[in-house]
Each structure stands twice: as C-alpha cells, then as structure tokens.
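Q: A reviewer asked whether we had any structural model of the full assembly, not just the individual parts. We don't, so I'm hoping you can provide one. Inputs are below.
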Amino acid sequence: MAGIVEQLDNKIAGLLAGWNIYSTVLLVGIIGFIGYVVYDTQDADTHPLLLARQAQASYVRQPGESAIYRSPETPHGYPLRTGLGVKPPGTPMYSAGRDGDLRDIWRRVTGEIPLEKNVQSSGTAKLMTIFGKEGVKEHDIADITKEITIIGKHLKDHGAKRVAIYLPNSVEFLAALFAGAFYGFSPILIPYNQPHATLIDLLNATGADSLIAQAGSLPLADVGKGVARLRQVIWTVEETSRHMDWNEIPEGIGGKIDVSVWHQLVQDHKATPGTLPENRGEAANVVFLWQEAVGKGAEIVEFTQHNLSAAIGALISALPAAQRFTPSDTFLPADAFTQSYCLALTLAALFAHSTVTINSVAGPGVDLSLAARKVAPTIMVASAESAIKLHNTTTVTITSSLKKLAHYLETTILTAGRMPTDSFFSRLNAPSRASVGTTPGKLRILFISERAGLNTPPLSSNDLSDIRIYTGARVIYALTAASVAGAVAQTNIYDYRRGHGPENKHSHFGVPVSSVEVKLKDTSSHKTTDDSAAGEIVVTGPSVAGGEASLGATGTFKEDHTLAYV
Amino acid sequence: MTVTEAPVATPINIVLLSLFVFLVYLRLKPAKPQTLPRAPPPTVFRTFTPPELFPYNGLNGMPVYLAVRGRVFDVTSGKNFYGPGGPYANFAGRDASRGLACGSFDEDMLTKDLDGPLDHLEGLVGEQLDALQGWEDRFSEKYLVVGKLVAVPSDETEADAGGDAKPAAA
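A: Here is a predicted structure for the entire assembly that you could use as a starting point for your response.
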C-alpha cells in the first residue's frame, strides 16, 4: 500500500519537475479563463422551460380535430382578449376598461384619454414623416385632429359610406382612417401602386363611393368611367406640386364626380374649431384587401372595430412588460399600412404615445436601411421579403474568418438564450451588421410577418437568428392571415432557438396571440393522433372576421407547443 | 534554467494545455436545450350511452366518469369521493343527475335500465333543480367535460360507436 502511494508521489514529483515559465503562463491563462467565464456567465433572458412548452393545449379535443391551443395569457376557461382596456378619465381605478375602437386610439393620441399610471409622455403621441433625403418633418397632433374633422365632415356631408384610401404610408392615410371611425364611413384600404385596371376592379369589388388618392397616381377619367358608384374624389398633393390646379375634372365624366383637394379643404376650414364629435354608436368597419402582389386578385375582408381593437390589444400584451411600446420608442413601419399586422402595430405604437415615423417607402421588399434613413427607430415592422433581403445582403459581406468567428460567437450567445450585448470582444471584432437607422444599436425589436397563402418567402429559425445578429434587435416572427386582424400567432420575443425545422422552410410561429385560439382540423393527408397534432389551421376569436376562419394552410403544433407549417 | 532553454513540451505543460483546451471546449459546446416530458395526449370527446359509460367507475384502473344532465364529467381527480369506496361511489359510471338534485346517494336514484331512455328528470321541484344547477356549475369549474350521454338507440351514437368506442382516455 505504501508502495503505491510512494510511486504516485514520485510520479507527481516527476511531473512537476518539468514546471517552467510556459507552465506558469498556461496556469495564469487557465485561471484567467475561469475568471472570465464566471464574470461573463449570465442568466438567459427568459427561463428555458418557458420556451420548452409555449401554448396551452386544452385537455379535451373533438374527434377529427386537435386540441385547442391558446396563449398562456388567456388560459382555457378564461375569456379571450377582446380589446384595449381603454380607461377614459374618471374610470374607476380597478375596472378593466372598455374594448375601445379607433376613436379611442386617437383620443389617446391627443392625450384626451390618459396613459396608464406611472407612464410619462410629452402629452401626445408624435407623428413624423420622412421625406426622402430632405429630412424629417414633425406633425402637430392638433393639426391632424383638425384634418380628421375637416375631411371626415366633408365626406360625411357628401354622403360617403365607403371610402377607398389609395395612398402610400402617410399621415393622410392615418387621418382618413381615423376620420372614418369618427364620421361613420368605412375606409377601404387599397394596397398602393396597383395597375389602373386592377384598381378599377378593386374599387368596384369593394363598392367604394369615394376615393382618397395621391394626385396624379391614377387617371381620373378612366376610373370615373370604370367605377359607376364613385361620387367623390379627394386628392392629396405633395407640397412641391401644390402650385398646380388639381380641381380640374376631366371631360367625359360630367358632373358625376365631385373633386376636391385635401390641403385646400384644410385651408378653407381653418377657422372651424377642430373638435372631434362625440362617440355615437358603433364606429364603421374597416375593409382590408389580402393580395399576393399588386395587380393580382384580392380577398376582401371587412374587420369590425371590435376585431381591430382585440388584435391591437393582443399584440400589445404579447410583449413582456419590459419590452412593450413606450413613449420613448421610435416606431417605423417599413411594411404597408394596408397590412393589418403593420397597421395594428402602428396603432399600438400610437396608443402608447411612441413616436411614429412614417416613410412612404414601405411595403413588401423595401430596403430596410433605405426606409430607416434619417431616423433611428427602436421598433420596426417589416415584411418577410424585406427581412430576407437584409439577411442575404448582409450574409455575403461575411467573408473573412475573423467576421465568421465573431458571428459564430454571437450565435453561441443567442443559443444560450441571451441577446448579445456590446462586450469587449464584440467591440474588438464586431460581426457584420446591417445598417438600419442613423444610430446603430438603437433598434430593439423587429417584427416580421408571414402572410398565409401568399407565397411569402420563408425565414428559417437560423435566418431569424442571423437577423438578430445583423440588426442587434430582437426579432418576432408572426403568422398573419386574411381574415385575422393583426396576427394569428407570433414568436416569443425571447425565443432565440436555432435549428427548429429544416433550412429554407418557415420557422415556427410561436403561440397564438391572446385574442384567438387555434385548432387543427384533420385533412385527408394530415390527421391529429395521440402523438402529434396536424391539420388545417382554424382560428377562432374576437380578432377574427366573422368569429372563425380557416386559413387554408396545414399546420402542426410541435412538441414545444409552437405553431408551424407542416 | 533560463527562459530561453525551457522546453515547451514537458508533460506538465501538455497536461495544462489539454486542461485549457478542454475548458474552452466546455465553454463553447452548445448546451442541450431543456425539454419537458411530453404532455399527456388530450382526451377525445366522445358520445356515451349508459352501458358504455358504465365501465368508467374507477374499478380495474379505469377513470371515473359520471354524467350530469347529458354531460359526462371526468371526475378521476376526485376519486376519493366518486371512486370505489367513496361516499358518492354509486354515481361512478352512471347518470348522477337525479341523485345530485335530490341530495341522495341511494341506488334507487339511478336509472335502472341502462338500455332504456335517459332520465328526463320529471317530478323534480324548483329547489332540487337549483341544487342540481349548483352541482353542475361546480363540476364545470372543477372537472373536464369529456363527452355527452345519449340513450342507447340513437342514430348519432350508432354512427360514432364504430371508431372511437374504445376508451381514448385510459
């Protein structure tokens, strides 16, 4: 026994006899590394088990269907979220608040309805427009309120019931939308840049009796002839073109159509006080078009104000408290307002008194760095086309092995459940970033949406992870559909997991938002069994037009209870 | 021994170097994502006839079901009361409506002929119906509705009886 100990002792002594300066360097290196690891170790942004099982499944399912899946915010047995919880002044402190509608959102913007307790803002939301290279112009909220009353009253006096808004993203677009809610007409949101023939078809299909459009964006003579019901046209005119006479009515449509110009109407009624009318009855519905690309046919969907406020409320509450819209946020919609997801998020930003910057360069496929120049947005919403473009243009810049290493290191941090922050190493060797906004690193959330049934390019979970590194922002990937206002489902803001699902396929879409519940109906090829849930996606809830909609896409709920395409 | 002469590849250096490399590997190795055990599959909603419901009385490892006014509740979590040996054991696997309404656990409260028509609760008075409503509300709050109860010769039951007559909840 003693022999063994002695032998071991000799061995160790022999080993240590070789100690030299390199050994000391190595030892210092090891201690330093351990120290760095201890210093550097942080908790994941959210508990990993919260991502391991996300949506709540009902315990009973109907034959031929999957269980019903819901957001953990509104568990089974509780009502789904129906609205915004608007609390006008004087509302008892612990009441739940009204569902609200667009009128309440604008009254929040003007400060008439107060923000939540403990939230400070300048008193109103802020609206800014980005004009190409020229810069940014801030709009006075009181002026826009006045425009809402003037345009709304004008249209109401002329008997408008269904008003087509054919504008790029602009303040006039929002003003016309809110005017519809206050003055009892239905705005029809037509995606911009349609071929003239398609526009005429869409105006006829939606039954528009009035039209608000950019001067010169469409030939009035053709539209006047093609759309029999059209009675009223309001042109919006850019400041640079206001010297021209836009009141002219082309020959051949006679006195049938009344043409007026937005800025002249506003000018003429400057003296009238811009007070909004009292809320009387339900505000009118809003009509959206679900179109794969301009020029193609479109599905017409009419959302009630209840649908919209439920959708907006659910999108607000889907973010954890620390990540919600605040008055210090700058929001940039880089997708078109005619997409209900983009519009709902914009209205959510306005509701929270964020600064909303509007760029008319917005829509599927726009260059995000172009859309965000001149401003430093903290929250953006972009189409999947734009996101994939940003991903591809940035990925090709990663050529050197140092950049690859930096990218790899940030990827490991993301896989560990944390958002990479500026550290010593990332400053020493920063990974490739996309330039979005004037101040790098300001962007904190990027919303990306998949549009069901419209051949949107897929973003895999690895693509999304890369975009997190390129933009330095947390990315939310949402499933949107024609008959569902806002989103059907969207990913958890802290879900950075990679490798979910194959490359070049859509990543999962997280959990249903709190205003809907989702089930999967068996199809001939996909059936729900005790082991897996699959079938056609059916959505029910207050933010669904008509209460229930089938998306026409087959989906599955994965083992972590996230919704994904099959 | 001076610095210039020190050999690099001594055994101790190799040991320390491999330790260092191992630590770096541990650090960079992607952690396995945490997973939860699979959730139990959801129970499939069924249409029961009284004879089909009868085996769900908690004996032989079966779950405990009972029916109230046509709705079948899974009361397995309340096995101490509704299961074998419990005070309400008579109700297990049966239509408990009349018994609950009358506040009586006796055999004669149950529908004797399982193949006969369902108990339509004739002859119950207001107070008893209120009591039944109270029980029903309590059950809806606490337990899952896993099916509905219909009388034996029903078209719907016959259509359904083929495929999912086997207990799906076991």
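A: Points you may want to mention in the reply: The domain at 133-303 of chain A is CATH 3.40.50.980 (Rossmann fold). The first helix of chain A runs from residue 2 to 17.
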